Amino acid sequence: MAKKLKGDQVLTGQLLREGDVVFYAEDGSWSSDLQKAKVATTPEQIDELDLFIAKAEEVNLVIDIYPIVVEKDEAGQLVPSLIREKMRTTGPSIVYADF
Amino acid sequence: MPIIKDGAIIEDSWTVLDEESDAPSSADIIIPLNIMLEKADRLSNHSGRIGLLIPNDVAVEDHADLIAKADLVVLELPAFTDGRAYSQARALREDLGFEKELRVKGDVLVDQAAYLLRCGFDSFDFEGEFDAVSWEKSTNIMTTGYQRTYRDKLSYRD
Amino acid sequence: MYVYDDFDEKFVRERAAQFRDQVERRLSGQLSEAHFRPLRLMNGVYLQLHAYMLRVAVPYGTLSSKQMRQLAMIATKYDKGYGHFTTRQNIQFNWPKLKDLPDILDDLADVGMHAIQTSGNCIRNVTSDQWAGVAADEVTDPRPYAELMRQWSSLHPEFSYLPRKFKIAITGASSDRAAIAFHDIGIQVLKNDNGEIGFAVYVGGGLGRTPMVGKKIRDFISLEDLLPYLVAILRAYNLEGRRDNKYKARIKILVHETGIDEFKAKVEKIFDGLEKEKLRAPAGEIERIQGFFALPDYASAEANPESLSKARSENPAFDAWVNRNVAEHKQAGYAIANISLKPIAGIPGDATSEQMNLVADLAETYSFSEIRVSHEQNLVLAHVKETDLFELWQALVPAGLATANIGAITDMITCPGLDYCALATARSIPVAQKISEKFADQKRQEEIGDLKVKISGCINACGHHHAGHIGILGLNKKGEEYYQITLGGSGDQAAAVGEILGPGFSGDDVAGAIDTLVNRYVELRNETSETFLEVVKRVGLEPFKEALYADH
Lengths: 99, 158, 552
Hints:
The complex is a heterotrimer of chains A (99), B (158) and C (552). By secondary structure, chain A is of the alpha+beta class. Chain A has one domain. In chain A, strands 3-2-1-4-5 form a 5-stranded antiparallel sheet, with helices on both faces. In chain A, a hairpin with a 5-residue loop joins strand 1 and strand 2. By secondary structure, chain B is α/β, with parallel strands linked by helices. Chain B has an 8-stranded mixed sheet with strand order 2-1-8-7-6-5-4-3. Chain C is an alpha+beta fold and 552 residues long. Chain C is built from 19 helices and 21 strands. In chain C, strands 16, 17, 18, 19, 20 and 21 form a 6-stranded mixed sheet that branches. In chain C, a hairpin with a 5-residue loop joins strand 4 and strand 5. Chain C is globular. The chains are: A alpha+beta (99), B alpha/beta (158), C alpha+beta (552). Chains in contact: A-C, B-C.
């Protein structure tokens, strides 16, 4: 059993065909926009999300699905708590392919 | 669990002997190496064929005499990522000269079958379902190889 | 360089077809992710932080102009217009889509390339000296033996499910530019008193969380027994390497826990029992491969030409570039031109499609259409006439490829870090960029002299930080990136693992800390020729610690 994460959570994964990072959205789809993510705040909702992972992977659309902890910034936007997940949401922090 | 030989499911006559029970003396039995080492005398009257189940952590060259007498050797693939049996098989075939049936038992994936065949296995004790079409495809897609191995049907540069 | 014959071509085409079938089965759901993962890894396909990543093999770092152009095409067509050259002389594309990967492998096969075993728990791309064949200090060109090992290790039926990855490097020179001491197997080509080729073999070197310098297992193995001896080492490892703990699964741990003498005894016992004849290279094969590595048809070229000295005296920037980036060649009148992929404040090891195409063109014009990739993430044109150097440099300048810093402090090895890598704990590239800016001044770099800074974004040490004169390791403490500094490491023939100086620094403070260390070195050295490592050896870490932490 994985260590229980503390805080509000959303599910993230990557598209099988393309590899793009996506988040499980309120409407049941997978969106590249974190702001559309379905946020679990109560223990029951978090358990529900965890249980959903295996089911979602069976669909074979999104892979490597796992929950991340999110917070709301001053503007009310969802932001991942961990630096790794921040990077994953925003893309590389450097200017690339520009010489 | 089906036994696969030459790309098809076959009827299997072998049964695995466990610690306690005795098989009929005329049966074809597979005996785990540790039992063989401890209780070889139980087999003095055995008229059926004898196979040897060798675990993953055993150096096969240490049991060359037993192997030479066996009609079948079974090696294990406890997880498809555990590649020890590939080395055991090549040592058996190429260094000890074992010519009888060599079977692999465990987590065999169809995409590994070609490598297993090249290492000298000729029968497969499979977990899960056997799909003859993908087996056929996967074992024939590569026709070239850079390493000469036991009874290999690939073509080489020389 | 080596050129595929019909057999090699058939082999890579079949392999590409096999992967196409596997991808189709994965996309249709027939193959689960758990079962597909090792298959895609053995074809160089990772799932990284933002996307899939494809690592293409550049065997022993040698490429043709045609191959480089194909890499540029792939970067443009399937990726975002750039690629990243790695410490194992390969190239990575950061944004390919799984659905396109079978087509990419076909495109690679069109130019005799592949991505076989650039990942996975198998024998990886065999690496070598980027100056192989032309270095002045070489016994013989190691690349024929590297190619022999590339073929031998490709889709090896026995060694594709090893306890962990397995890296082999080979050098033919007395100066080790291939870091053989930090490989699972390191090989040095030798000639015995009878003039016969053989190999000293080292085993159990590696970086990562348990860095170790390789230990010698054989003083001299003959050419015909090279492959059987490798089989014996790999078999001992495959059978006895630890499979219970991923972090203890490399051969260095087995060698360390067993002891080199006992491990050697095991290997020799297996070796003695092998039916060697079948494991050797087929008759005539080595000679066939060697034929591809004959020296190119050098023209008679003037050594130290007047035109070169004139251009150098008239162009200080060109002069600096020649001093730093041009190395001595075996052949009089020729030079080795190193192309830095470390522009000031750039991304170490990255090249755009335009840059790749330009280098391909320049190699065609000036260097027999051949390009090398170094493990320090730079490119090399290995056969340039001294009379052509100025023209070559002029063509490199506008493309941002003429940075004069090979071996200098801004020529850092840097892993992709948390900007790309799913395993990273901290970013590497922004730290390298800040250090590069801090030391941008050419004059200051020259005053400092040779200095190797190496940066990894996690304990796996892809940036070779343990082997850096100054090593930087990015970690994560309470959600913040911080960086640990080591001193005294070396990746060459005097291989050594660096020692940790003390508490780490934030990303904003690393460049300043490196500045402090370098200033201290300059103060401490007795003469400008005393190297950083010599000073560390002479005075120890204390004076550096004092300089860094005195105020804290």
